[in-house]
């Protein structure tokens, strides 16, 4: 696949606030998912966002949907990525597909990123304020430059404020205390998290220009809390 086609895919995604997030050709040792023809795919191009760029596009779409629609962001993402996949002869995949595909490993390989202490991949420009919304799987090889060598900003961070701001210490070197976090978010002291997002994530000083607005963070916390 020529770079020009990748540019065309980028233009199609931009209409929805989405961007390509790098890609690669699968190797012989990879557990390769099926491409559009049903055979193992030859290559993958990740699709995602930087900051909250898709939010207004998603909100306009959401106003036309039933009020009881479950997992609306996943549904919107599947619709948009699926449409672009159909236009360019690819098969769409979603991070919520089961059995789950290794999106984080793909992202690390495609963009050269590493996880932060919160588990979210640290991006040198976007910080923790980015996401992967899907992937395009192709039967042909795509011409993509390999990721540049990235500085992992977490290695340079001495104070690690992302591990010191949560009232219930949900994140630590031991991992993520899911039940403690969920109970706090749902409880009477969890209002700041419900309305403004994860305190640990917001404590990170990187990528502030891409930080999600409070209404976007509240949307994600509502989904996490099951409200």
Automatic annotation (TrEMBL):
<protein>
    <recommendedName>
        <fullName>4Fe-4S ferredoxin-type domain-containing protein</fullName>
    </recommendedName>
</protein>
